[in-house]
């Protein structure tokens, strides 16, 4: 069982917590197959998140993206994820297609209560929180971190869970230069359906109405802003000369 760091806030810094060989060393996300009775029965996916169409804010317009200040790269990636997911209610979000919503705001519920809500409401979407975590992924994250089921699904816990998934997508390999920024973007797109592939389409295009919610140009610009050195590694000599 993986021990939880003394403060969940420390999960926002990956360089120490997830160094190679540690308990938090990134590992490939296993292919997830839905079990009978779940909202994904008959659909095999690798995404950690729901495959239902995303809801737009009132008026159908997405709020402008604002990059967080400071040097916390994981915080910035999480902000891009939230922007792509297009949810209105932040840490209290749930899939709006659910006919029976959670009994109270998600950020005030314990992990046990979220699991109970899932069991009590079969046949509907159960993605929950700022990063729209589905039940199978939530259970996997609980097992990996060793969190008690009485832990509240508070913002810092949701952020910590998202950090684990970002690291699984190759964050450390990106930082040490063994993974390109373009490849990292593709791996993130395999987790969050709102992110586009270079084609502009979602990795899950055509599945349950999914489509990319931001352009590949904007996605690339945001990620290059977060990881400027990695972005320069991917430039050709001609483009490097044009972008000193």
From TrEMBL:
Compositionally biased intervals (Polar residues): 9-22
Region (Disordered): 1-39
Name of the molecule in the record: Transglycosylase SLT domain-containing protein
